[in-house]
């Protein structure tokens, strides 16, 4: 394996995982590799158990989303013993960067459109009782083109700005309004901290969210509580 | 790895007593009694010099094995010991009452009855000696003392004790909580496990678990409950208690290791519990460090003097090109000096607690305090 291993380029180092850009199967198929390295401070048995569990649960969530038609990267290959997940390379930029550019250029229409799509995607996630767990503007990508097919005959086609959710490493299944509201709250905070005119923008996200599924009203109500006390539950009472 | 303060007489950070009686230096008396330790401390601040510990004494209420400490018993303990302890602190350090600038006491968080006993003593002294009162947040006391002793400038702080588990970083004049335990504190989990196994509470249950864990080698499966930068311990406690009961009774069958080759010992259980909960703590700390982009980590609180936790944190910090700062039991475990230190920092900014406001509270969040002595 080592002799034929595809070259990889480190693009992000988080607390838990290293993210590389590489290729999968063929040098023409770009892929993203998420590697959870061994943690020397952890007992080897515990380390192996956690790495396995996390790889598999992230993969499970990704495939579930895929099946439901929620835009996430496709999983190519998992080696849970080594802590590796190979997945589809999403060509595009994070919504954080895209928004900065759009706002700077005054492309109001496109911004509104993007906000609406974002609200709808998050709504679809929550409607199916999936919680992202780390829904920041860095973890939402916007892609302008998509590859149809993988191997021979694959073509790139232009699509209207499409919103893709990435990094479900902290995601989980949950029916609780609290968890969903915290997702929205984290997103709101991410908006407010990086985009000056964000308040109106985020309102567009919420409007789209609220109109997208039946349980949304209850989550919105819960969001008001979460805003009042912050993300942490108050220890009072 | 961990930086340990040296003996007070040889501490290189301690400056010669040149500023002994210059008017610029200030002295605070600190009274701490939020849990089962009663701590009295006297500290001197001289501009441009490290803080000087004049006295740091403590008396601990120890309950018999299998029992925790009840608020009413602890309150009685504090009431009976506070006068002799303050007298000793004054006489041992040769401090005159006239030299004291303020009286600092723990306002919270902590157990109600013990907090009240100490607050009463603080008010009485304030009236008797005509000195201003300063109510101090216990968590901020730990953080400030840790920073002063270790010299860590702007670290991510892991505060772990019997009542608190928080990952904290400083931003815009507040100590902000990035992650915390959502149910019981990690020290509480360890203490209660010690009760199940009838491990001695002398000098501290956590200390005895640490010693036993050194002899353990079999790692059993326990839940691992980290959620982002938060964690929880009650499920782990329930699980390990169940294993402990199986070990003690041998029912329904003797407790074996995962491979089924060896009978599990009490030491193995201590080892398992420590490895699991400390891994969780290191993980949430690492996530906070990645989040705020810091490579320094400071461990404070009673659980922070556990050397295995310090070692694990050191391995993590090394991988991130950083370092870990920790103190020993004199400053990690609840003490009066940290209350004096944090109180004096606030007092020098003009902060004072009037007699009417000199209450105490069981719930007092770390981020409620305006930290106006830092930029």
From TrEMBL, chain A:
First-listed, main subcellular location of the protein, grouped into a coarse class: nucleus
Localisation per UniProt entry: Chromosome, Telomere; Cytoplasm; Nucleus
Assembly and binders: Component of the EKC/KEOPS complex composed of at least BUD32, CGI121, GON7, KAE1 and PCC1; the whole complex dimerizes.
Pfam families in the record: Kdo
GO biological process, one term: tRNA threonylcarbamoyladenosine metabolic process
Gene Ontology MF, one: protein serine/threonine kinase activity
Catalysed reactions, semicolon-separated: L-threonyl-[protein] + ATP = O-phospho-L-threonyl-[protein] + ADP + H(+); L-seryl-[protein] + ATP = O-phospho-L-seryl-[protein] + ADP + H(+)
This protein's GO CC annotations: chromosome, telomeric region; cytosol; EKC/KEOPS complex; nucleus
SUPFAM superfamilies: Protein kinase-like (PK-like)
Keyword match Ubl conjugation: no
Record's keyword terms, sorted: Activator, ATP-binding, Chromosome, Cytoplasm, Hydrolase, Kinase, Nucleotide-binding, Nucleus, Phosphoprotein, Serine/threonine-protein kinase, Telomere, Transcription, Transcription regulation, Transferase, tRNA processing
PROSITE patterns in UniProt: PROTEIN_KINASE_DOM, PROTEIN_KINASE_TYR
EC number(s) reported in the record: 2.7.11.1
Protein name, entry field: EKC/KEOPS complex subunit BUD32
Native species: Pyronema omphalodes (strain CBS 100304) (Pyronema confluens)
Job description of the protein: Component of the EKC/KEOPS complex that is required for the formation of a threonylcarbamoyl group on adenosine at position 37 (t(6)A37) in tRNAs that read codons beginning with adenine. The complex is probably involved in the transfer of the threonylcarbamoyl moiety of threonylcarbamoyl-AMP (TC-AMP) to the N6 group of A37. BUD32 has ATPase activity in the context of the EKC/KEOPS complex and likely plays a supporting role to the catalytic subunit KAE1. The EKC/KEOPS complex also promotes both telomere uncapping and telomere elongation.
Enzyme superclass (EC): transferase
Domain Protein kinase positions: 5-237
Family assignment from sequence similarity: Belongs to the protein kinase superfamily. BUD32 family.
Entry keyword Glycosyltransferase: no
From TrEMBL, chain B:
GO cellular component: cytoplasm; EKC/KEOPS complex; nucleus
One of the GO biological process terms: tRNA threonylcarbamoyladenosine modification
Sequence segments annotated as region (Disordered): 1-23
Keywords tagged on the record: Acyltransferase, Cytoplasm, Metal-binding, Nucleus, Transferase, tRNA processing
Primary localization: cytoplasm
Domain of life (superkingdom): Eukaryota
Cofactor requirements of the protein: a divalent metal cation
Bias (Basic and acidic residues): 1-11
Domain (Gcp-like) ranges: 54-340
EC numbers: 2.3.1.234
Molecular function GO labels: metal ion binding; tRNA N(6)-L-threonylcarbamoyladenine synthase activity
Compartments, record wording: Cytoplasm; Nucleus
PROSITE patterns noted in UniProt: GLYCOPROTEASE
Keyword Transmembrane: no
Similarity section: Belongs to the KAE1 / TsaD family.
Protein name per its UniProtKB record: N(6)-L-threonylcarbamoyladenine synthase
